[in-house]
Write a structure and sequence with these properties.
pyrimidine biosynthesis, Asp_carbamoyltransf_reg_N, Alpha-Beta Plaits, SH3 type barrels, four-stranded antiparallel β-sheet, 140 residues, Asp_carbamoyltrfase_reg_C
Amino acid sequence: MNIDSIKNGIVLDHITAGTAMRLYDALGLDDLDCTIAIIKNVKSNKMGKKDILKIDNDFKVDLDVLGYLDPNITVSIIRDGKTIEKQKLDMPKQITNVERCKNPRCITSVEQDLDNIFYLANPEDRIYRCLYCDSKVENK
């Protein structure tokens, strides 16, 4: 299989195997008019298997969304065919409008225009809680 390198864009590497499409949807990549390579189940010495996303565009990626969905991802910024910056992610302390609160009694269920805000309650178990009703969201 031959996948071209990109000139200017972003490479998302070390994605948990089988989850690249979830990232694709969460980042809204289907709205971009550029080449996007989704490489699934690549052999990895460190992870066994992994996914990779290559975006051939100067796309402003939301690092909080990536950190929430998969904090092990490495983000590489590519310019003129060379990696100019590599970023490791952390789990964000707070996320806004990435998830919806599932509690039917939460104020966000009644007030549709209210932002869904979750804070990181337990980093080890990747548990976020709703800022308004304290309902739990487990992201595994």
